Amino acid sequence: MRILHIVLIAVLAGITLVFAIQNLESVTVAFLGLRASTPLWLLIVVVYFLGMATGGSLVAAVRYALRGATTRPE
After folding, report:
1. Quick one: pLDDT band at residue 8, thresholds 50, 70, 90?
2. Between the CA of residue 72 and those of 27, 46, 63, 66, 68, what are the distances in Å?
């Protein structure tokens, strides 16, 4: 099962890399009144890593909550 997860992550990372390489033009991003012009591949990589960080944090928080909910007080 662990090998399957590693393969799935590698495939998704590869697809993301191919997508980023094929989209090299510059884009303008606006957020809360701030504007930034950046290559699309850089934006894709940053969003990918932000997604990994927030997804990992969410999984850790859920595991912690479930572990606390299933532990019996002594």
Report:
1. very high
2. 53, 41, 16, 12, 8
User: pLDDT, tens digit, for every residue of 17-47?
Assistant: 888 788 888 889 888 999 989 888 888 788 8
6-15: string of b/e by CB count within 10 Å (b at 16+)?
eeeeeeeeee
Output phi, psi for 37, to 5 deg: -105, 120
Hey, what's the torsion of the CAs at 38, 12, 15, 31, to 10 degrees? -20
- Whole-angstrom Cα distance, residue 17 to residue 63? 30
Q: How many CA atoms lie within 13 A of 10 on its CB side?
A: 6
Domain boundaries, the chain: 2-70
Give SS3 for 13: helix
Helix (H, G, I), strand (E, B) or coil at 34: strand
